[in-house]
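User: Second chain of the day. Same drill as before.
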Amino acid sequence: QVQLVESGGGLVEAGGSLRLSCAASGSGFKIDAMGWYRQAPGDQRELVAAITFSGTTNYANSVRGRFTIFRDNAKKTVLLHMANLKPEDTAVYYCASGGIATLIPRSWGQGTQVTVSS
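Assistant: Same format as last time:
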């Protein structure tokens, strides 16, 4: 069982930056892909960014060039650096892990709120 704990959300003005962190613990983590999803009120949960154990990344078109995902395998941590934030980035952001070549979530964090004011 993998436990994921997020941190780093908050309120920021449009154009600002935030960094989200997710720490994994427990058994079964090994070489899973990790990443971030987000869900705004009334919307479906969507993939934001993902990274494999070897470092291959994948981004949603809406965040490519603004968000960067990093991973520290020794520390079992994944970071999401978000720059040039827009009001439409406002959502609850969830850390996820699972899959190898592609992120297929089997474990979820509890979520952290990101609010971007205009």
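The longest strand covers residues 18-26.

User: Great, on to the next one.
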